[in-house]
Amino acid sequence: MLKLGVNIDHVASLRQLRRGNFPDLVGAAKIVEKTGADSIVVHLREDRRHVQDKDLFDLKKNIKIRLNLEMSIAADIVNICLKLKPNQATLVPEKRLELTTEGGLDVVKNKQKIKKVVIRLQKKGILVSLFIDPIKKQIKAAYETGAEFIELHTGKYAGSKNKLEYKKNLRDLGKATRYAINLGLGVNAGHGLDYQNVKLISRIKGIKELNIGYSIICRSLFVGLGRAVKEILELI
Question: What b/e string do you get for 152-172 counting C-beta neighbours within 10 Å, with b at 16 or more?
Answer without folding.
Answer: bbbbbbbebeeeeebeebbeb
